[in-house]
Structure formats: C-alpha cells, structure tokens
Amino acid sequence: MTTAQSCNQANDGRSLQLPHSAHFFLNERCNANCVFCGDNYFNSRSGRMMTLEKLRIIAKNIHLEHYRQVILARAGDPLLCRDFVPILKYLHTTYPSVGITITTNGIALNREVSEAILECGVTMLNISLNAATKETYHRLMQVDTFDKICRQVRDFSALRRERGKGIAFTAFNPYHAL
Q: What's the pTM?
C-alpha cells in the first residue's frame, strides 16, 4: 500500500479524511503583552520552542504532503522562533504544494524575515496591528512599538512590490474599528 493510500484509507477499506490545515505553534514567547491575550506569553519562561528537526519529524509523521496549508501562529509570536527562517525554507522546498500562512504581531518583521517570507512563497501574512493610533496600540499591546511596526509594514509592502510577489497581506486592527 502506498503512503497516500495508507493515509486516506483504513485497513478495513474505510476512507479517512485528513485535515486541510496543520497548525504549528513555534514557541511560547511573545514580544507584546496584549490585554486581550488569554495567556501570558510575554512573561513566559518555559523555553519551549519548535526546532527544525522536531518539525521535520512531525511533518513526516502526519504526512504533511497531503495537507493544503500550514499555519504558523498562536501560542507566542512565530517570528521569535530561533528556527523560523530555516523552518520556512524547509516547508517551502520539501512541501511546495502546501500553502503557508503566518499570523504575527509584526514586531519582529525585519528585513531578513521579510525576504524569507517572500522567497519561500508564503501565501498569506496576517499582521495583527490591533489599533489605528499609537496611544490605542500602547494601551492594548502594552509595548511601545507602533511606529516600528508601521515602518516595517511599509517596508514589507515596498519589498513585496519590488520583488513582484503576489502574497495576500493584511494588517488587521479589529479593536479600533469598534
């Protein structure tokens, strides 16, 4: 029996449906202390972080090649994972038909990370801006990085246009719209 058959068919012939998306929580650390977050990743000292080697094992075991997308989000900011860029490159080269979605607060979206996101064919980048003004941002996120994020979003957008990359890109702020 082939791998595809073993993934989609049980021993008794029943069809098994794999999920469409695989969510990977890359770490338990965050660089913002959001008032609306249900956990305290800003002060997390667990040290738990996904490594490229762990991700390779998990991807093989769940037969990631049969999924439609990988979502790198939640449980801390994925851009803070030490292996973030190597993980991105691995996913892109090993599973080229699997889309990659990233949700981040954008604080760590520097030039190196931006280039990796564009080079690795990320299909969706969600940046949770969460406010339209510096004051509201600081009140909600409890860090003083609003100007930095706005600059990095502009830089990413310019780099995306310069490289001619078609990536869905949102800077979302649901809280200020209320």
A: 0.78
